[in-house]
Amino acid sequence: MRPIEAQGAPGSAGMNRDERLHRLGRVTGELLHDLAGSLAVLSGRVSLARAEASLGRLATDELARIGADADELRAMVLDVLGEVRGVRTPAEVTFPVRSTLDGVVNRWLIGAPQVSVSLRSSLPANAEISGPRTFFVRALGNLLRNAARHAHGEIRIAAMPVGGGDWVEIEVEDDGDGVPEDLRSLIFEPFLTGTELGTGLGLSFARWGIERLGGSLELNAAKSRLGGASFRVSLPLSTIGARARGPASAAPDRPTQGPAPLRGFRIAVVDDDEAVRTTFTRLLERSGAETEGMDPTRWDSLEAGMDALAAFAPNVILLDLTLGPYSGPDLARIMRERASRLFQRVIYFTGGADPGPMDRPTVSKLLPWEVILDRLRRVALAAEGRDRRG
Asked: Which pLDDT band, with edges at 50, 70 and 90, does 39 fall under?
């Protein structure tokens, strides 16, 4: 699968609108495929936690796994949406390949079918790869799932440094029947599947993710030593040394406030999605804020919405970009013209990747909660400072 570029992304010049939409639709289908699998796992863990709770047990292990699954899912969505928009992960953000590979295999084994799985690795502990960790995790997970679907009873994974130690090579082999000759050249095409079940998107998304990390994913020409299919991942290693911790730590300036970092602040949550309003107002209240959830679909006009906000007198306005019949930026423009004090309290609430240059700060609903808290606090304190000065 070739790189997918969105409108405005590097390399998209010369592409017409239909071509851009086709490429966006292709990666969206693959993302939804992986989301479906992740949500199925998350749903299963929730069921296990509920079962434990019904027996009067505190399901701490399952709750920890649910949190990890949710964090990975959120990071994956942000990474893919950022890639589609052409917003690349900074080169200094890296992850350790050996421990990440161990984690992928161990986590997958929890729900794996009845097959024998072995992992042999000669990678140094400090070998690292630049880019979003989630792309690697999803790609390797998809390769393992594909192998499990076709294996008769055994899967082998081998990881080793190559190219003088500048690259890592990972092989995933199974003892199945192998890939039919007429499908070998098409195996990474989306919606192609060699089984009655499935969408054929797993391998396509795996190659997409590996390519985003600067590597390649290929089906080896010869059958595996086990007699089935053999896939080879090749990835460039990052310069060994100090590194970022991964996707979650890429967010700057994590807060250090106590359990009620927003105590004394009034925050309005303006969103046409009731679930979002309810969830975030509850989270904000737990952080000490006085909150008001506002449903813009009940407003007669944007002016009426501005009046409702003025009556609440918030320190921060979490303003969704799309408000049902209205637009968040349109409401902000009215506030800028008629109530500048309110406008200075706006922070746009987005559903995915950075929307690009805006007239006010933005925060994604998918960011870790502590990062959202920190950005809200910064906006509130900045507004307070302006009030004192003038």
From this structure: low
Take residue 136 and report the two structure tokens written for it. 């690697």
Q: Pull the structure tokens for residue 327.
A: 């637009």
Q: Quote the pLDDT of residue 188.
A: 79
pLDDT in tens, 212-265: 889 999 999 888 888 899 999 999 998 644 333 334 333 333 333 455 788 899
**Spacing of C-alpha 245 from chain mean position:** 16
User: What are the tokens at 389?
Assistant: 């000065």
SS3 295: coil
pLDDT in tens, 255-295: 334 557 888 999 999 998 887 888 888 888 888 999 999 99
CA distance 332 to 345: 10
For residues 231 and 172, what is the distance between their CA atoms, to the nearest angstrom?
5
Residue type at 312?
F
- The contacts of residue 311 (CB under 8 Å, 6+ apart) are none
166-183 confidence digits (pLDDT tens):
999 999 999 998 888 877
pLDDT of residue 1: 32
HEC profile for 5-46? CCCCCCCCCCCCHHHHHHHHHHHHHHHHHHHHHHHHHHHHHH
The dihedrals phi and psi of 212, each to the nearest 5 degrees, come to -65, -25
Mean pLDDT of the chain: 77
pLDDT computed for residue 249 by the predictor: 35
The structure tokens listed for 236 are: 């460039």
Q: Give yes or no for a contact between 278 and 347, defined as CB atoms under 8 angstroms apart.
A: no
Beta strand residue intervals within the chain, DSSP E: 94-96, 116-121, 128-130, 154-162, 167-174, 216-219, 230-236, 266-270, 290-294, 316-320, 322-323, 326-327, 346-350, 362-364
Count CB-CB contacts under 10 A for residue 138.
27
Q: At how many degrees (to 10) do helices 133-150 and 97-109 cross?
A: 40
Indicate the pTM of the whole model.
Answer: 0.54
- Cβ count near 273 (within 10 Å): 16
